Amino acid sequence: MYVIEQTVRESPTIQRVLREMPPEVADTFSDDQLRHLNKALGGRSWARHKIDCRGSFNFWRGSYYFVFLAGKNVRELTRLEQQTSRITLALLGTLFLVFSFAVGMLFLYLLKSALGIDLLDGISLGIWDKFRQLW
């Protein structure tokens, strides 16, 4: 995998425009002028991402590509997207808390068992025995 960082002169839109004009004219454009020209022609200068990983691989009888993009979301979200984002964040937060609670309880149970403390006589979950077998 690699990160693609493209200059404005490497943009397909700009390359197409510069090929159509004489080289002595094409060389007179500054990068800033080319960026504005690219934007005016519908180039994707707005789609720059902090992480832009692209690649391809062959599998069985075909060739497949993948794209992984990540960056700050600068567009306005619709109401549905905002609600979905809140619900997803709440769900992930809840899952994190439940997982953390379960790991914490497991740790406390193992600590209790290691210290030889029996809260209920004759009742054991068997987790301590399994843990001791691993070590």
From TrEMBL:
**GO MF annotation list:** transferase activity
Keywords, comma-separated and alphabetical: Membrane, Transferase, Transmembrane, Transmembrane helix
Span-the-membrane segments of this chain are 89-111
The domain of life is Bacteria
Does the keyword field hold Membrane?
yes
What name appears for this protein in its UniProt entry? Answer: 3-phosphoshikimate 1-carboxyvinyltransferase
Q: Which organism is it from?
A: Alteromonas pelagimontana
